Amino acid sequence: MPSPWKKFVHSVFPLGWPRSHRERLQAVRGNLWLHVFPARVRTGSLHPKATLGLGLITFNLFVILCLSGVWLMMVYTPSTALAYRDMNDLAHVVSGGRFLRNVHRWAAHLMVLFCILHLIRVFCTGAYKRPREFNWVLGVLLFGLTLALSFTGYLLPWDQLSFWAITVSANILDYVPVLGPPMRRLLLGGEEVGQAALLRFYVLHVFALPTVAFLLIAVHVWRVRKDGGLACSDPELRGKEDPNANTYVLTWPHLLLRLMLVMQATLILVFICALLWDAPLLKIANPAHPPNPSKAPWYFLGLQEMVSYSAFWGGFFIPTVFAVLLLLLPYVDSNPKGAGYWFSRHRRFAITLFAIIIFSLALLTVIGLWFRGTHWTWQWPWGGTRI
Ligand code: HEM
């Protein structure tokens, strides 16, 4: 006679631990979460070189952020009078608070970084081409959401760094003709960064943006399956000499085991960063004393650098054209050749153009990060001496 516990477990998992091929197929098909995967996957898509695991790492970072964020919410108050005190408490009073904040902070930076790397990988393998055009568009929206998530979180510590970084970035909106100033007021809840802005950023950061991101990620990953799996046509990945080339293997265990390994690796990476480097916390925000220079978060520094040359071109025209081109890319470049191949020779022009754009953006970011000093003048990264 089975015990009540065994009966309970059986009611939740009627199939039990799958032991045969048939049961593993059923396990994937019958589980809400595993159902985003097909029951079988192509061997080529399991090759590390196919995706470098970048989309998965980005997803894992999102999960880490949600979990650590819920924890942080138990300590944090979105008020200009209390937020900074709470951050100090996290560092000095709450046990494990500093580590938790570090985990959240570094996972946020890493998510932006890995999202960019994932975008670059998808471009370089031509994986946005038919039938994956719409998934690319979803990806671009996810990229915007990732930036928005990180940006809204940036203000919450309410120290000099966060206050002025958000002030500088929000001011860039003023360069958008007609719509810019009202958009900025809507975002900040007034003319300046203050209590209204802090509350708006908080609600966006902990509820609105993560919810939309979660839903979009679900559709994005589901589309990978519906679009026929990953775009990997490269015979090298399928193993040309392998007699089983391009065969299908069971998702459980082949794909799931790899997912677990990448998840562990992501967690270890975040923990190492959190142990090695503390998240910064400067003095409490002081609207009367702007630091000189005031810099935007690193992912907007390229934009800030362009604005320093021309407010209209750098702050509005070039970013708008770039965003529109990124969204429309699969419809502009609809030639199916080279899809699923790394750096296909049929796409030399597109890849060269893309490389120039990415290199320029990286260069502008590096300049903004290390080569700009007081009054945005040129300086050497060491010692702050002028160039
Ligand atoms: C929150 C951000 C994102 C998450 C969590 C995410 C997640 C994923 C995952 C797990 C995959 C399948 C495996 C892999 O490629 O590693 C994938 C594939 C894909 N992603 Fe993303 N992604 C994100 C952002 C983006 C961005 C910014 C783009 C491009 C603009 C993009 C475009 C695509 C495309 C087209 C595929 C299919 C690739 C193929 O078939 O080879 N994604 N994404």
Helix share bin: 55-70%
CATH topology: Cytochrome Bc1 Complex, Chain C
Strand % is under 5%
Distance between the termini: 83 Å
Shape: globular
**What kind of assembly state do the chains in view correspond to?**
single chain
The DSSP helix count reads 16
Total domain count: 1
Q: Using only CA atoms, what is the Rg?
A: 24 Å
Strand pairing plus helix content: what structural class?
mainly alpha
What ligands does this structure carry? protoporphyrin IX containing FE
Strand segment count:
2
CATH superfamily: Cytochrome Bc1 Complex, Chain C
Describe the structure.
The structure is a single chain. The chain is mainly α and 387 residues long. It has a single domain (41-345), classed as Cytochrome Bc1 Complex, Chain C, CATH 1.20.810. It has helices spanning 4-12, 21-29, 43-46, 48-51, 54-73, 83-92, 97-124, 133-154, 160-172, 180-188, 195-226, 235-238, 251-276, 301-309, 311-332, 348-370; strands spanning 40-42, 248-250. Strands 1-2 form a two-stranded antiparallel sheet. Helix 5 packs across helix 13, helix 7 (97-124) runs antiparallel to helix 8 and helix 7 (97-124) packs across helix 13. The relative contact order is 0.14. The mean pLDDT is 94. Residues 51, 53-56, 58-59, 62, 115, 118-119, 122, 127-128, 132, 135-136, 139-140, 142-143, 146, 217, 220-221, 224, 230-231 line the site of protoporphyrin IX containing FE.
